[in-house]
Input
Amino acid sequence: MQNRTQLKDWIVIKEEKTLKTQLFDLYDQTLQGHNGEIRNYTVVKRRPTVSVIPITEKKEIYIVGQERYLLEKFCWEVMAGFVEEGEDILEAAKRELKEETGIEGKSWKKFAELEMSATAIKGTSHLFVVSDLTLGKATPDEGEYIILKKVPLKKALDMVLKGQFPSAVSTAAILLLDKMIEENKL
Output
């Protein structure tokens, strides 16, 4: 096994967008590998997303629940949404939080960036925690029916361990947030 420092970077010889949708674009690529081998590769590129966990002084977090068509079930999640073209990531997080939950916060901290996949999907999720909260009226997008729920962070951890957060990003966000609070990194 070679160390990464011993490998040459992949070279994209050719890239063709074969599909464009509202949520992602599909690309066929021809690559030259570190050993000179030529490979064809298909890549999904998604717009960046933001995930936000509002937290109270009592270490309670707000989560959202909604029906997820693709999973064919009701899901609990941390609040998340897409970053619009040209939009600042923090501004996207603030916008999505207010639209979906009506919550605004004064103290924002980005605590992680996660990739959707290391193989076929290029899409970064930016994780934020927000405190000093003000509750307001949500204005979700048409077709979004969102339930807002406040739970102690420890209960959310229990829910994660019981598989009640099917979203990998939501699961990782809650686990990371708890660990960072435990280690006084937030």
User: Anything to note?
Assistant: The chain has two domains: 4-46, 49-182. The chain has a mean pLDDT of 92.
